[in-house]
Automatic annotation (TrEMBL), chains A, B:
Residues 5-59 form the HTH lacI-type domain. InterPro entries: HTH_LacI, LacI/GalR-like_sensor, Lambda_DNA-bd_dom_sf, Peripla_BP_I. This is LacI family transcriptional regulator. GO terms for molecular function: DNA-binding transcription factor activity; transcription cis-regulatory region binding. The keyword Thylakoid does not apply. The keyword Transcription applies. Gene3D superfamilies: 3.40.50.2300, lambda repressor-like DNA-binding domains (1.10.260.40). Pfam families: LacI, Peripla_BP_3. Keywords: DNA-binding, Transcription, Transcription regulation. PANTHER family: ALANINE RACEMASE, LACI-RELATED TRANSCRIPTIONAL REPRESSOR.
Length: 339, 339
């Protein structure tokens, strides 16, 4: 039962991160030569060698990529991001005969087991890392498991994996500036849950853009569902001085808010301007058409799959991919406030 | 290179279907004893034995179930059925640590290869069979591959697999009867693509219900997308005698049609009644709320996963599951026609 040295042991001995060890042992560029030398020396001293599984992975392919989602399974139908992202991934995989292995981990269960299960017996050739969190522990886990990965956006810690980046903030700034230019001064947002990096990014861009114009932000937090959007809208409209414009962190809440405003007798955009985020299919077709921000999760999935497949195919140095940032789409649901 | 006898060879010799052979060789009930005897005799004479893969499947589990979708990958984001169905499946799988292997096969490619890939190396323990077609060739293929399966609704040919059944027709009849009771006589439908069994079922129920009331059906065919719903709506409203009520085969087309009618200056429901199918999340929240039919694809996925897992767990005789039929949900988008 003598324990084989792991990447963590090598990292400890060399005094570097596990990510750096993975870089060095896989011959990927980006580290100082002195660091590489130190790591290789530590690996030699410990007698480190790649695990059988890692080696078998490099010769035999599973023809499948993995996605672990740590949310309520219902999010797959209530949040338009994942279906569109998965559709984009499949648009690449279907041309290569690859499958997508989808592992949903319930809140409170071990997410790490989800990745271990995917790694077990080499059932996937690589994984997508979504819903990044602060100092995400999954980076080290995947290095340890020897699984190629691509991250959706760049993690805030060190990561040996290429990232596919889609910046929500320019589009958020553009929609808020659009409302300010129309003459609105009481602008509210219905934000998404603050646990998600992407929800926080939109909120920060909203608050900063208003502050730059000398305006006070008015924020209600929603949960990305239609019902949550309705409730937040009702609370905002019941204020002594209700907003004249509301920006919602996704289209689903915005379309529900549009219906709630109309049901309460308001005319959109004359009495209230409404803007969303996603440019989901129905945004163009509700009446009035929804001003929104187009983030294109389908293209995100497509780019992530192309990037991950470069790694799986053995490319030595796969760069980050920067997608065009989310952009403002102006339709009929926003106009100057009544005077 | 002597070829081993297959289930098809046994079926041919015994003069029965491959499904019956599968039933008999797996000791499942439901066949006459004389038929079982004939099949076992034929298998003996041919020296038939289960393949290695089939045997290894019975002892080692992949802890994954498979779904092959033969449609444009974009359907995963444009059609609410699959995300909700998959969410329901995952609500069961996530409690057992199972993964879902999703294989999208592009139109024109070999769908059978999709199933063979899933069966290869026992990477799934069973599969869901969706989008059933007339005399579906996948039934025999799965029998041949030795893969447990559950069908979504009952195929029209012979099948050894349990089915999960959700009947769209009672809900469709109910919505059409609701429009007739309101006093409408010019009732149109925007149908889904006729290639799908479920789209045809809704169309047939629509036409028959109108015929029973002595009314002529008016049909435009859509493609389940919002854009297709808009186009079909415009064609219907441009008729010399336009309909006073439109039933859409999904909510997405209905919500888009609602927007198109409102954009053309019509008031819903005073000038035009609109009804959908799905009861998707936004149906309740658009203004006016959408009268629709609730089919509950989440519950469909849940029931299908529970049924398939019974087979995977080795249950001898898994019965069909009949879900509550789709039902009418009346909201503000339907009313009596103006006189």
């Amino acid at each position: 039962m003598s324990k084989r040295p792991t990447i963590a042991d090598v990292a400890r001995r060399a005094g570097v991160s596990k990510g750096s060890v993975s870089f060095a042992l896989n011959g990927r560029p980006g580290l100082a030569q002195a660091t590489v030398d130190k790591i290789l020396a530590a690996a030699d001293e410990l007698g480190w060698r790649p695990s059988n599984r890692a080696r078998s992975l490099s010769v035999s392919k599973a023809f499948a990529l993995g996605l672990v989602i740590t949310r309520d399974p219902a999010v797959l139908s209530s949040d338009p991001f994942f279906p569109a992202f998965i559709a984009g991934v499949e648009s690449v995989l279907s041309t290569r005969g690859q499958a997508l292995v989808l592992q949903v981990v319930m809140a409170g269960e071990s997410e790490q087991d989800g990745y271990r299960r995917l790694a077990r017996d080499g059932r996937v050739d690589g994984v997508f890392l979504s819903d990044l969190r602060h100092d995400d522990p999954r980076i080290d886990l995947l290095v340890e498991l020897g699984l190629p990965a691509v991250t959706l956006n760049r993690p805030d810690g060190e990561s040996p994996f290429p990232a596919v980046i889609l910046d929500d903030r320019p589009g958020t700034r553009a929609v808020v500036e659009h409302l300010i230019e129309l003459g609105h001064t009481r602008i509210a947002q219905v934000a998404g849950p603050p646990a998600f990096v992407h929800a926080t990014a939109r909120t920060t861009a909203f608050v900063e853009t208003l502050a730059a114009a000398g305006l006070e932000p008015l924020t209600e937090t929603g949960d990305f569902t239609a019902a949550g959007g309705i409730e937040a809208t009702r609370r905002l409209l019941a204020l002594p001085k209700p907003p004249t414009a509301i920006f919602y962190a996704n289209d689903r809440m915005a379309i529900a808010g549009l219906g709630a405003a109309q049901a309460s007798g308001l005319t959109v955009p004359d009495d209230l301007s409404i803007a969303g985020f996603d440019d989901s299919e129905l945004a163009e077709y509700v009446h009035p058409g929804l001003t929104t921000v187009r983030a294109d999760p389908f293209a995100f999935g497509e780019a992530a799959a192309l990037t991950l497949n470069q790694l799986v195919d053995g490319a030595a140095d796969v760069p980050d991919t920067e997608l065009p940032p989310a952009q403002l789409i102006v339709r009929g649901s926003t106009a100057s406030p009544a005077v």
